[in-house]
Amino acid sequence: MAGLREPNTKSLRTTRRTAIGLILGTPLLGACSGVQQTLNNQFGQQPPPDAAQQQSQSVGTGRVKVGLVLPLSAAGNAGVAAQSMKNAAEMALAEFNNPDVQLLVKDDAGNPQGAQSATQQALDEGAEIILGPLFAQSVPAAAQLTRARGISMIAFSTDSSVAGRGVYLLSFLPESDVNRIIGYAASVGKRSYAALLPDNAYGGVVEAAFKQVVGTKGGRIAAFEKYGADRAAAARTIAQALAGADSLLLADDGDALAGVSDALTAAGVDLRRLQLLGTGLWDNPRVFATPALQGGLYAAPDPSGFRSFSGRYRARFGQDPVRTATLAYDAVALVAALARTQATRRFSSDVLTNPSGFAGIDGLFRFRADGSNERGLAVMRVATGGAQAVAGSPKSFGA
């Protein structure tokens, strides 16, 4: 691969080609259970600002310094996720052959003040790019500092509203899921769409993407409804209008989705007549075990990449990674590859937004100029005991 050496061991050769298979300025050659956060924090309560404990650590001895900002001291699942992501970042460095990168690991405690302090420390120590933070509310606080210095940030939030000039999101965005699943449905002849979505921030993002992509694919919206605590009322409202639809988009997590399907069935809807469509939140054992959802289609990363990554992670750390650990791995693999191939322009906006994109653990991704991202996703079918791929992830991005 242009400018890239093989990994440290022969057994990792295919893995590394996938993880850092990037060609800039030429066609790309490389090659979730609750994978998306809802826009209100899925990791539970964050500690108060004064709970920040700066856990600084340096990993690697390369000349290119890279800040990694994570909520390492945060309470509950947030701290667990942060540690898993830190492990994955270290693993990426270990699997890259002679990386010229030094990671400056900083703890932001999961709050904006901590993120600003952690980012300031990393910048003062010479960081040329910041990876993180994880939480949406922390990104703008840290971005004030990076923008002032003209330094790029690759954050892990799934809230696209915090993306922008110099702030790129390496995460699983609901918009990508909706674009992929509606695009696939249109490609197999679906034209009349309905959606029943949760009345929350996540549902709002899905709604906007749904209405936009249906129009661009030449379809029509036959019915649309949102629900709060009373799913039954929303199901009754939309039931009659579903007679004019051939597809129904449902976007919620496993337990809630089972409840929605029950409410629709109770309202007299024959779900077998409709092609059910979903987002990556469907990648959940509860969904696979729900009879009414069998045959439903959803967009998600090809699971083979995460399976391979998880095996190597378990061998190194003796435990399973969190699903978001691949984000940290891909971010570090990306900056290590750019440090090797792109000289002084390595983290500039034109390099990061190269339209050919990059190949990571979870498949293709590319950053847009507005800081959001596009992912090459597979289409999965719900089946008893798991999911089956019906359309693979793309090997390259279109224009």
UniProtKB/TrEMBL annotation:
Membership in a protein family: Belongs to the leucine-binding protein family.
Entry's Gene Ontology BP terms: amino acid transport
SUPFAM superfamilies: Periplasmic binding protein-like I
Entry-linked CDD domains: PBP1_YraM_LppC_lipoprotein-like
Highest taxon listed in the record's lineage: Bacteria
Record protein name field: Leucine-binding protein domain-containing protein
Residue intervals of the Leucine-binding protein domain: 64-386
Any coiled-coil regions, as ranges: none
The entry's keywords: Amino-acid transport, Signal, Transport
Gene source species: Rhodopseudomonas palustris (strain BisB5)
Pfam families linked: Peripla_BP_6 (PF13458)
InterPro entries membership: BCAA_transport (IPR051010), Leu-bd (IPR028081), Peripla_BP_I (IPR028082)
